[in-house]
Write a structure and sequence with these properties.
single chain; alpha+beta; 4-stranded antiparallel β-sheet; two-stranded antiparallel ribbon; 4 helices; about 25% strand
Length: about 180
């Protein structure tokens, strides 16, 4: 009889331990589910941010400016074939340098920017793009000097734009729709 009572008591203790283990497991699962929901909400906001057409347009313009600055110009300052990028040419323009073919760095910079923009952003009848404005400036702590300004078409209220900065060169582009 004592064995039966002790056996029943031990059985109740095992059930109690199992029940506590199950309760802990359920609590853990609830915490994991809540964390997963928070993570999914975070991902939804991140994807929505990048799928926004306005943010996408601004990012495309910024990427264009970065690529434009890396474009190789037709100007070699010290010797050919060491042709300068648009970014380097902007620095040379600020310093008043000339290319080895006696063209002014600023003139080559302007011509290169006009060609790049005309080949990249079509402005005309039937085009979604109605105009653009590009400004390249040299900045110091105290001053800002415009090196190149290219404008084509007309800009109304509907426009998107972006800027790119280095230590001394600021490039901004506004595309008008």
């Amino acid at each position: 009889m004592l064995n039966a009572i002790l056996g029943g008591y031990m059985h109740l203790q095992n059930l109690s331990k199992n029940k506590k283990g199950q309760e802990e497991l359920v609590g853990f699962v609830i915490i994991v589910v809540i964390a997963l929901i928070v993570f999914l909400i975070f991902l939804a906001f991140q994807f929505n941010k990048y799928n926004n057409p306005q943010n996408k347009a601004d990012e495309e313009i910024r990427q264009f400016i970065v690529s434009m600055n890396r474009f190789t110009s037709e100007c070699a300052i010290s010797y050919e074939p060491a042709y300068s990028t648009i970014l380097d040419l902007s620095e040379w323009c600020y310093r008043g340098a000339e290319c080895v073919d006696d063209k002014k760095a600023c003139d080559v910079l302007n011509d290169s920017l006009v060609k790049l923009l005309e080949n990249s952003w079509y402005v005309g009848e039937g085009s979604v793009v109605k105009g653009y404005e590009l400004n390249v400036s040299y900045k110091t702590n105290r001053t800002q000097e415009e090196l190149a300004y290219v404008k084509k078409g007309s800009c109304g209220l509907n426009s998107r734009g972006s800027e790119h900065f280095t230590e001394t060169i600021s490039s901004s582009l506004k595309i008008c729709y």
